[in-house]
Specification:
The protein is α/β, with parallel strands linked by helices. The chain has 16 helices and nine strands. The chain has a seven-stranded parallel β-sheet with strand order 3-2-1-6-7-9-8, sandwiched between helices. It has a two-stranded antiparallel ribbon with strand order 4-5. α8 links the parallel β2 and β3. α3 runs antiparallel to α5. The two termini are 25 Å apart.
Length: 387
């Protein structure tokens, strides 16, 4: 049985990353234009606008009990976002900023640890792309180039030090990045994804509805089929429409201390009556090899969300693990390959295993990509020492 076809749509800040990257992007421009307002000043101006809008909005949060009411509130923030973008443009923060500036800053941020990616993300991306699914990032962030630079650098880092036989299996540039962009130039403008004649009206990707429309644009170009599932992963109220519009919506929640955005999303879901359940209940039972929740149940609960602390947990869910019809030649994503080989009487060396490695674990634990046949993958290599 072929692996399940999944189209994976991801938020960036707080989802793929562990923190917001907006201050880092702002500082790219501020270093070139030090006379522009500080990040703290711009942030405070945004919060002042937000609080004024909040006080004038006719329906207080405690009275918003339905999804439609909550989505209307989130869409009403569009003018607050517009004002914030225009404020940054008028201040000339991004005047003279080039793509090279942005890419260099992104690479430096990842390498110096200012941007940290959430555990297991690269394995998920590989799994979906190897199975011919679409992977896209949909973000309200200010720079798609910054996002791509971060992903590329983090992906390269995960394979550094691999030694002989190690390779990067996929081009991370094949991931679609849908976000706002810095145009730079003499005016320091930013892009407007939506033209004036669009449903959203003239403006950037700023709100939950905007992200939902961009997700629809991405999916309209994807191969469709009865087996294809759309999975969206996000962490904030801005992700609400996409989370509930996907076949499976997954909320990222930090283990222990949650972020402000995560708390706001959790409060919103509780208020409008949308339940979320730990994705662990979708995992394979390690003892019995049976699903605790099958596909039919997932479909019947459309509108219900799941949560996970990272992509490693998501990767072990039924959505990304292998089908287990044949115990002998299929293994679940994340099962140590060396253990599998020993248990099934095979002999191989570490270099051969690197062909299907999706991580660079220092302890030598190696993994399959997406549950495809381990035997056929290894035997397809002429230099394989598998016997």
């Amino acid at each position: 049985m072929a692996p399940r076809l999944v189209h994976l749509i991801l938020d960036f800040d707080g989802t793929l990353t562990t923190t917001s990257t907006l201050p880092l992007i702002y500082n790219i421009g501020h270093r070139l234009n030090p006379s522009a307002p500080s990040w703290q000043s711009i942030s405070q101006a945004y919060m002042d606008d937000y609080n004024v809008h909040l006080s004038c909005y006719p329906l207080a949060s405690s009275r918003r009990k339905s999804l439609s009411e909550e989505l209307a509130w989130l869409q009403s923030l569009r003018e607050v976002e517009r004002k914030s973008t225009e404020r940054v443009e008028a201040a000339g923060v991004f005047r003279g900023v080039t793509k090279t500036h942005v890419d260099s800053a992104a690479r430096k941020a990842v390498r110096e640890g200012d941007v940290a990616m959430r555990r297991g993300w690269q394995r998920i991306v590989e799994s979906v792309m190897m199975s011919k699914g679409k992977v896209a990032v949909v973000s309200v962030g200010w720079s798609g180039d910054f996002i791509r630079g971060c992903l590329r650098t983090a992906y390269e880092q995960s394979y550094e030090g691999g030694g002989k036989g190690a390779r990067i299996p996929l081009k991370i540039d094949d991931v679609d990045i849908c976000a706002n962009e810095i145009l730079g130039g003499q005016e320091g403008k930013m892009t407007r994804h939506f033209p004036e004649c669009s449903m959203a009206g003239d403006g950037g990707i700023w709100t939950a509805k905007d992200k939902e429309m961009v997700m629809a644009e991405v999916l309209s170009k994807c191969a469709q089929g009865s087996e294809a599932k759309v999975v969206y992963v996000g962490d904030s109220p801005t992700d609400l429409a996409c989370l509930l519009g996907a076949d499976v919506g997954i909320c990222i929640r930090n283990e222990g201390s949650t972020t402000v955005e995560q708390k706001l999303l959790d409060m919103t879901l509780n208020r409008i009556g949308v339940k979320s359940e730990w994705i662990g209940v979708m995992r394979l039972d390690g003892l019995e090899g049976k699903l605790r929740r099958n596909d039919t149940q997932i479909q019947e609960e459309h509108g219900k969300l799941w949560w996970a602390k990272d992509f490693e947990e998501i990767g072990q869910s039924v959505l990304f693990s292998a089908n287990t019809d044949s115990k002998d030649d299929r293994i679940r994503l994340g099962q140590p390959l060396m253990i599998y080989l020993r248990e099934n009487g095979y002999k191989t060396n570490r270099e051969d295993c690197r062909f299907i490695q999706t991580g660079n674990d220092v302890d030598g634990t190696l993994y399959m990509l997406d549950g495809t046949s381990m035997k056929s993958e290894l035997l397809s290599r002429p230099e394989s020492s598998l016997v």
